[in-house]
Amino acid sequence: MSDNSVYQNPLITRYASKAMSENFSDKKRFCLWRKLWIALAESEKELGLNITQSQIEEMKKYAEDINFDLAEQYEREVRHDVMAHVKAFGAQAKEAMPIIHLGATSCYVDCNSELIIAFDALQIIKAKLVNVMDKLKTFAIRYKDLPTLGFTHLQPAQLTTVGKRAALWLQDLTMDYNNLVNLEESFKLRGVKGTTGTQASFMELFNGDEKKVKKLEELVVKKLGYDKVYGVTGQTYPRKFDYNMLCVLSQIAQSAYKFSNDIRLLQNMKEIEEPFEKSQIGSSAMAYKRNPMRSERIGSLARFVISLPANCAITAGTQWFERTLDDSANRRIVIAQAFLALDGILNIYLNVSENLVVYDKVIAKHIAAELPFMATENIMMECVKAGGNRQELHEKIRVLSMEAGKNVKENGLENNLIELIKADKTFAAVHGKLDKILDASKFIGRAPAQTVEFIKNEVDPILKENAAVLGQKGDVKI
Known about the structure:
Blueprint: H1 10-15, H2 18-23, H3 26-46, H4 53-61, H5 68-78, H6 81-92, H7 106-142, E1 147-152, E2 155-161, H8 162-185, H9 200-205, H10 210-223, H11 240-268, E3 272-273, H12 293-306, H13 309-317, H14 328-353, E4 357-358, H15 360-374, H16 376-385, H17 390-409, H18 417-422, H19 434-437, H20 447-465
Antiparallel strand pairs: 1-2, 3-4
Helix pairs in contact: 3-4, 3-7, 3-10, 5-6, 7-8, 7-14, 7-20, 8-11, 8-20, 11-12, 11-13, 11-14, 12-14, 16-17
């Protein structure tokens, strides 16, 4: 039961998945601390320090049995979270107490655990990202041939197809995926570096044996399941990594924001709608309304995520020498909430992308209102081929287009340009060809082929590589 008398973070209660919430939980964080202490003790033992196997086994016994209440009590006394948990762990693993955290600084557990949590969070994001791509691929292929008005400056432009527009959404996500993979491939742990990153405490433990100190870091990192560490650090891992990471999250949020805005505009035009459930209420006052609440929520959360990289940039730029602590409270909020919010965005994106409703008759109606203007060049060329004068035809088309435009804008009537052309003998050569000339599929260029080629060349390889995680569905909690 939640305590309704205090503030509850909506990222947890309304938006993020259980998996992402658990990833940033205290349980995971402190279990990782103990895993790091065990890996350190094992490695130090292997390299000859006076640590017994029974001490290590005792530590393993309590690796996931976090005595939170005692740790909180110690932290109130010592005002230091890592030392509070060292004492709490030692209260359970009494024999191991003397060697827990041996030679380490707080950032050994803090930084390495934060990096591991971030890496795991990236895996959750990556899986959801490729699932959204999979849904959009299906949609793009299904509607690759369906003509629709293209828009530039939010004004009707040449035709495209519904599927090609979805390919644009997909392309944004493809770029985001590649950026995420680049971040993933360059991922490093802080390793075992000591208080200011010099490994001085470990040089002391191993009597100046530099090879053993280097081997210690190698062993610890390998036990944690990783293979790369930063070559040099201060007390913390480079805070520029946080900025790079949040830039990737921001880019995914930007792509989702673009998609959500397009859907909101299309829903206003009644061409495409996000899912709307049978009992869903669009407005408390206007019962007929079908508000695009899912897309609006994507945009709302995306705006938050997009704003966060600047925070990390300030943190990276204000690290004094080897480290300053004014980043700590800030980073507890910013990094976790960036992931939680983006997780919520992708949950909704999944839900919307697999349940989009397309109204092809409305799309055709909108095309019919604009296509006559777009077809004037084709009409004119057909008349020229039949012996007409290009300049005279151009002037006549211009006059009739102005008249049809006035009919639409001033009189609120339908576009009657084709009727005007049919009634004018100047265009007699095309009177029997107008239906063929006005076939919308003649105005979409290579949109269907571009969509198929793009998916085959750039999207399918990503989906194939991530086939094991496909099949997720979006969950909109509230």
